[in-house]
């Protein structure tokens, strides 16, 4: 009851769903589309684990209703590697050990891959600030910043 038709473009594929208007983009991805790579940490915009790209920009998918994104091109962590090649940010996270438990990693990588196109400064501190919306409880920040900086240089 109360469901409406919703069309979403995710990782280059079109999906037709029936969703209640209150369903977040995060829950639609995880529960309805079986794309659990996007993580739910806080579910209220504080942790960044749910970061996806909407038309190339990073968005906290827990703060957005799926029904609002019918004209958008959405990319999740599952769609970041292309043609079997890791995205450079993914490869750099592996090289620099940019994770410990890994729960925040999809969000960190989606955030980092979007910020490559944002006008931020060159210093490590600039990356830290630009990634401030992505919390890592293990404290892997130094390695995360090293990974991001390697791709930016
Ligand atoms: Fe969306 Fe934490 S789950 S910001």
UniProtKB/TrEMBL annotation:
**Which organism does this record belong to?**
Alloacidobacterium dinghuense
According to the UniProt entry, its GO molecular function terms are: 2 iron, 2 sulfur cluster binding; metal ion binding; oxidoreductase activity, acting on the aldehyde or oxo group of donors
Q: Report what the protein is called.
A: (2Fe-2S)-binding protein
Question: Ranges for the 2Fe-2S ferredoxin-type domain?
Answer: 4-80
Q: Does the keyword Iron apply?
A: yes
Q: Which UniProt keywords apply?
A: 2Fe-2S, Iron, Iron-sulfur, Metal-binding, Oxidoreductase
């Amino acid at each position: 009851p109360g469901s409406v038709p919703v069309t979403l473009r995710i990782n280059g594929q079109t999906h037709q769903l029936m969703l209640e208007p209150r369903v977040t983009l995060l829950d639609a991805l995880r529960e309805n589309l079986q794309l659990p790579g996007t993580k739910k940490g806080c579910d209220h915009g504080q942790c960044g684990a749910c970061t996806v790209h909407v038309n190339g920009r990073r968005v906290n998918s827990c703060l957005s209703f799926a029904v609002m994104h019918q004209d958008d091109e959405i990319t999740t962590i599952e769609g970041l590697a292309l043609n079997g090649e890791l995205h450079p940010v993914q490869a750099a996270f592996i090289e620099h050990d940019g994770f410990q438990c890994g729960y925040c990693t999809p969000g960190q990588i989606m955030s980092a891959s979007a910020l490559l196109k944002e006008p931020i400064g060159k210093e490590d501190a600039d990356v830290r600030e630009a990634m401030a919306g992505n919390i890592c409880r293990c404290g892997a920040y130094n390695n995360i910043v090293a990974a991001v900086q390697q791709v930016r240089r």
